[in-house]
Amino acid sequence: MHPTPGTESVADVIDRLVQATNAHDLDAVVNCFADDYVNETPAHPLRSFRGREQVRRNWERIFAAVPDVQAEIIASVVDQDTAWTEWEHRGTRQDGTAHLMRGVMIFTASEGLLTRVRFYLEEVEQTTGDIDAAVERTVGAGSVAHSEGQS
Description:
Elements: H1 10-23, H2 26-30, E1 33-40, E2 49-50, H3 52-65, E3 70-79, E4 82-92, E5 98-110, E6 113-119, E7 122-123, H4 131-139, H5 143-148
Parallel strand pairs: 1-6
Antiparallel strand pairs: 1-2, 3-4, 4-5, 5-6, 5-7
């Protein structure tokens, strides 16, 4: 038995989104989102946007560039109309390179549509070094040597 349209929980809508993504059904993907949907990307604020037409443009490009893209939810927690979801997107790009993204999306839904997300999905990279290199990039050169002398 399927929920009556507009009465789906946030978990139901996210499940519908995963199914539509994996079926590569652009209209079904777009139909998971409210017209005034808000996508906030806190780590990259210039990537934030409003509206489901941008969702359509994004997914048209994704389906064209990664024709075998598949989405999987690794873990999730639901609290009323909000769901914290950990995702993996994988596939092969048109140029033959691997496409792999992982991260968290925190969705809010209302009346069977996704209305908002805080988007933390990132491309997986394996070339920029270990944790020491990451800390060095984040806080700057010389930070480790400076802090070691300050016990």
